[in-house]
Structure formats: structure tokens, C-alpha cells
Design goal:
The chain is mostly beta strands. The protein is built from no helices and seven strands. 0% of the residues lie in helices and 49% in strands.
Length: 73
């Protein structure tokens, strides 16, 4: 199993942009673990299911991981 992102950690999205983890949350209807994070550039808050956090996706004809931990910790 993959490790949960931790509050304060910075992660990079495969399309660009760096994001900071705010917290983990639980969806009230499904009990699914959600990752709550914000854009470091714009401050926009996002929420994404943890179950797809580490997904591998196709981007510009190559397979990449949706999020990777930033080296700028």
C-alpha cells in the first residue's frame, strides 16, 4: 500500500504545478479517504480521492504518475 500524503508536504502534479497537502478527509457518504491540497501558485483548494493519488496516467504519449513528492521539502 502507498503511504498517505502528510500535511505540509509538497507534491508535483504531472501537468505541472506544486501543491501542498492540507489534510486528509473522509467522504461522508462513501467513507473514502480524500486528500485535501492547495496550489502553491494560486492558493486554490482541491480535494481528490486517495485511491487515485498515485495513479499512472498517459500524458504526452508517456506513462507518468499523477502526483510525485516534491524535492523542495
Amino acid at each position: 500500500m502507498k503511504n498517505y500524503p502528510r500535511p505540509g508536504e509538497k507534491w508535483n502534479h504531472y501537468k505541472g504545478g506544486e501543491y501542498e497537502i492540507i489534510t486528509l478527509a473522509v467522504h461522508t457518504e462513501t467513507q473514502e479517504t480524500m486528500v485535501v491540497y492547495k496550489s502553491l501558485l494560486f492558493g486554490t483548494i482541491y480535494c481528490r480521492p486517495f485511491s487515485i493519488w498515485y495513479d499512472v496516467v498517459t500524458w504526452e504519449n508517456r506513462r507518468v504518475t499523477r502526483f510525485t513528492i516534491s524535492e523542495n521539502q
